[in-house]
């Protein structure tokens, strides 16, 4: 199989690295070669976080070239727009319909762009907006939005659902397993 690339992006504190780890573990257990890269410089201060996961029969680099990413999994709309140039011509953007104002916006120096979704629609071959933060909050903890998004991604991949649930069961602290299983199902069902 030709290698495929998934770019996961968002803001520090949203669980991007946990989602990246879950995805990588599932892909490894499914028998793929996997390479992963992370950038999380100012993540503890609300800065952007990016992780790329490439997988296939043979993968030489964790970093895709511009215009070669198959899927963007974005935890925040503006972060999706910031990275959309990585998408291939047939690329899919799975985006949390959530705005986390960057520091210049929060400080009142800039305005959050009103046309983020329209710009994403123009650049992505397919755009799926999911209210992941709201769905997770409805389950009792908005921090589970990362697993809602993993569920949505899983529904688009040809990997047995049971494997995803098995990995989540092993990686998540016992007291959060039930919440995360429900979050995964919420995202998985959203696509159907």
Number of domains: 1
In CATH, the architecture is 3-Layer(aba) Sandwich
Query: Percent of residues in helical segments?
Result: 40-55%
Q: What is the CATH topology descriptor?
A: Pyruvate-ferredoxin Oxidoreductase, domain 3
Write the layout of secondary structure elements.
Elements: E1 4-11, H1 16-29, E2 33-39, E3 48-56, E4 69-74, H2 77-83, E5 87-96, H3 103-106, H4 116-123, E6 126-130, H5 132-139, H6 145-155, H7 161-171, H8 177-190
Parallel strand pairs: 1-4, 4-5, 5-6
Antiparallel strand pairs: 1-3, 2-3
Helix pairs in contact: 1-6, 1-7, 2-4, 5-6, 5-8, 6-8
What labels would you give this structure?
8 helices, globular, Pyruvate-ferredoxin Oxidoreductase, domain 3, 192 residues
Describe the structure in your own words.
The chain contains 8 helices and 6 strands. With 192 residues, it is an alpha/beta fold. It has a single domain (4-190), classed as Pyruvate-ferredoxin Oxidoreductase, domain 3, CATH 3.40.920. Strands 2-3-1-4-5-6 form a 6-stranded mixed β-sheet, with helices on both faces. It is globular, with a radius of gyration of 16 Å. 41% of the residues are buried. The mean pLDDT is 92.
What is shown here, in short?
Helices cover 40% and strands 23% of the residues. The chain is α/β, with parallel strands linked by helices. The relative contact order is 0.16.
